Amino acid sequence: NRIREALKDTIYLGEYQGTDLIHLEDPTDPHFAYSVFRNARTGKRACILVNNGNLPCECTVKAFEDSEPGKVEIHRPFAPMRRATLPLKVTIPAERIVIVAED
């Protein structure tokens, strides 16, 4: 609920942008997926990184399209939000998500 509330205007009420607006070094794990959403009011984006597998996987988030690598928020279930700077190597636990959002 904490993540839903923090990102509702971007993910739930925002615009689905597909997978083209972010630069990632994708893991080779076939259980990895991702998508980008944009807040219609602020223009800030968030990328949902999904691991549907039984083992953790990693990827590197380089930058959002048409944006310099910059400050982001990292949202994980059952963990406090933290801030970081792109590029960023992210570990996605098995059967979990991680959300990287422009700050």
Task: Tell me briefly what this model is.
The chain is 11% helix and 50% strand. The protein is mostly beta strands. The strands form 2 sheets. Strands 1-3-4-9-6-7 form a 6-stranded antiparallel beta sheet, with helices on one face. The protein has a 3-stranded antiparallel beta sheet with strand order 2-5-8, with no helix packed on it.
Task: Produce the secondary structure layout.
Elements lengths: L1 H11 L2 E4 L3 E4 L6 E7 L6 E7 L5 E8 L6 E5 L6 E4 L2 E5 L3 E7 L1
Antiparallel strand pairs: 1-3, 2-5, 3-4, 4-9, 5-8, 6-7, 6-9
Based on the structure, what is the oligomeric state of the protein chains? single chain
- What's the count of strands? 9
Strand order of the largest sheet: 1-3-4-9-6-7
Largest sheet: 6 strands, antiparallel
Describe what this molecule looks like in 3D:
The strands form 2 sheets. Strands 1-3-4-9-6-7 form a 6-stranded antiparallel sheet, with helices on one face. It has a 3-stranded antiparallel sheet with strand order 2-5-8, with no helix packed on it. The longest helix is centred in the first third of the chain and has 11 residues, at 2-12. The protein has 103 residues and is mainly beta. It is globular and about 35 Å long. The protein has one helix at residues 2-12, and strands spanning 15-18, 22-25, 32-38, 45-51, 57-64, 71-75, 82-85, 88-92, 96-102. Helices cover 11% and strands 50% of the residues.
